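Problem: given the chain below (276 residues), write out its structure.
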Amino acid sequence: MIELKKQDYHKASKSLKKVTFNSLFARAAVEGHVSGKIFADSQDEPTTFYVIHPYGMTLLFGSHRNKNFNEAFKDHSLNKNGLRNTFEWMQAYPDNWDNTLKALYGNQFITSSDNSENIDSGIVELNTRVNFQFNPQNYIELKKNLISLNGTITRTTEKEFNEMEGSVIPSKFWDNAKDFLANGIGFSCYLEGQLACTAYSSCRMDNMLELGMETIPKFRGKGIALHTCSKLIEYCLENDLEPIWACRLENIGSYNLAKKLGFEPTLQLPYYRLSK
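Solution.
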């Protein structure tokens, strides 16, 4: 595995365009909208690529036949050098990679349902990623029955960008508040005078806006995520943007919220959790 120089990131673009599922996060890194990393099998004429978004989502794509790259990638997946203290969540394209990876990991490959002890090192855990498609008619039905919220939703500012806590927050998808305010969009909900929820563009490419959302634990279960995300969807509709949603199948909360907002599941993909 060779880390590409930033001036060579464009070499991944042609192969990335062939990916048929939602890969906006990878595009954001490849096109320099966010600071990421790209590894490849060659600096000069790469054919295999591994893109790492700063949030920890990754995409492996291109040729699956580069033996030296694959062996080095196995070491990276299992964190053999101990440089990583967080998981990486990987998708792979094309489908040929699925069998290649199973053979590569051997008995260190385990499904999430079989990982009852929640082993997080020395294995690669198989989960499922779901892509959704927005159905405007479903959303219209939601709006008809949406109960009013006992809170305040405002445009996300630098204050909320810096103060919002959690795992899926704007500061983990954008390099800084200035960049987010110039190129992204978000809405934040205040409940009982406290910042409770933020829905925002985790990626914004062409006419597509991928939604990210986080609710403070003490305010969960009150329906504020539904209202806050609805505000962002309204922004998309008013500005001719297609709302995009994807999540892990095992994330029941995110999956159900997507369906409530009018999104329909269209595709399920292998989602590999790499060791930390």
